[in-house]
Write a structure and sequence with these properties.
By secondary structure, the chain is mostly helical. It has 16 helices and two strands. Bound molecules: zinc ion (ZN) (2 copies).
Length: about 375
């Protein structure tokens, strides 16, 4: 009876497809590399297809359809759905539905790919289980989108037709239909799937919790390279309405760069950004919480003195971050009103306050590092 129940709980089409293409790749890839001449054009076109289908998942499925962090037109929607279909990760409607549930019930039983049930459940095993029916209220906005509905309704037809046509086209262009199937289809899917699944598994498992310890999501710079910028997952789960995952200009987040580029080309509008002051405050207060826990465990005898020192550091930093935020707002206003006289003064004050903030931040880092390493620290008397 138990085995019957287990067999009934399996999502057979997805399981057979995923295991099947893995086995095919393991069998056919050595034959291709041993008996066929390696083709650079085939490699680069397959890599481009890999990147385009991956970016359609992150720009399209994730940050556009699931989180609505920007607005765009039907033409871009159609392109995102076209390459998103090539990725074979479910329809945009189903994907967004599961992802919204993941955010709403993170680490709880309702979360379809919760890491609490284990790394492999979050990575791949959840796909082998029968899906729960779609809760219409979760995706009522997407139901009104004709393109999304069409892709969802004829999803199997679309994935077969598009993948067959693209693979045949690749074979025709490069003169190797076998290579196109092994590299352009099987290889592309293998890397794309595992890299995307890393976001549900590794990005909830291995990294730093810079913005919140209230959920398992972590920031991992290495992962952002493999996942088109989705590795800043702790930030993402804390500020899910932001179109960026990597918020600093040097953070590797090609998804954010594409959305930004679309805006510059007037193909995207209404890009949502979390408030800079709120981000700094959240990060500092989270750091404070971690440090206070450490103090309670290791410096209980000097708890009050430590708490006073930590609060002093954080209050100073939060006040300076607020000042920079207010000054930046004033500067923008002065720029709009063309108050040339005040612009120079404001610029100077912003620069000086930023310098003071950085000095205080360095002092805080030194202090917190010593506390975390249980080294002696100077405390106010
Ligand atoms: Zn997540
Ligand atoms: Zn998300």
């Amino acid at each position: 009876m138990k085995i019957l129940k287990f067999l009934k709980s399996i999502n057979w089409p997805s399981t057979i497809f995923i295991i099947g293409y893995h086995l095919l790749m393991i069998g056919l890839a050595p034959i291709y590399f041993l008996f066929f001449p390696f083709s650079w054009p085939l490699f680069w076109i397959s890599f481009t297809l890999f990147y385009l289908s991956g970016l359609s998942i992150t720009v399209g499925y994730h940050r556009y359809f699931a989180h609505q962090t920007f607005k765009t037109n039907r033409f871009i929607e159609a392109i995102l759905l076209f390459f998103g279909t090539l990725a074979i990760q479910g329809s945009a409607l189903r994907w967004s539905h599961d992802h919204r549930i993941h955010h709403a019930f993170i680490d709880k039983d309702e979360d379809p790919y919760t890491v609490v049930r284990g790394f492999w459940h979050a990575h791949i095993l959840w796909i082998f289980r029968k899906q729960k029916p779609i809760q219409e209220k979760v995706v009522s906005d997407l139901r009104r989108n004709k393109l999304v509905n069409n892709q969802d309704k004829y999803y199997v037809v679309w994935i077969v037709v598009l993948n067959v046509l693209v693979t045949l086209g690749l074979g025709f262009l490069t003169g190797s239909y076998f290579g196109a199937f092994v590299i352009g289809f099987l290889g592309r899917l293998f890397f794309l799937h595992h890299f995307t699944w890393f976001i549900n598994s590794l990005a909830h498992y291995w990294g730093h919790q810079n913005y919140s310890t209230e959920h398992t999501a972590v920031d991992n710079y290495l992962l952002s390279i493999l996942t088109f910028g989705e590795g800043y997952h702790n930030y993402h789960h804390t500020f899910a309405q932001d179109y960026r995952n990597g918020i600093r200009w040097f953070h590797f987040d090609p998804t954010k760069w594409i959305i930004w580029l679309l805006e510059k080309c007037r193909l995207a509008t209404g890009l949502k950004r979390a408030n800079g002051l709120k981000i700094s405050e959240k990060m500092l207060l989270e750091h404070k919480k971690v440090l206070l826990e450490k103090v309670c465990t290791h410096f209980a005898h000097k708890k009050e003195a430590f708490e006073a020192a930590i609060s002093e550091h954080i209050d100073k930093l939060v006040a300076k971050a607020k000042r920079i935020h207010d000054l930046s707002k004033e500067y923008e206003k002065a720029k709009r009103q063309k108050w040339a006289d005040t612009l120079g003064d404001l610029r100077l004050e912003i620069r000086t306050t930023k310098k003071h903030f950085q000095e205080s931040y360095r002092a805080w880092k030194r202090f917190s590092k010593s506390v975390m390493k249980l080294q002696p620290v100077e405390l106010p008397v």
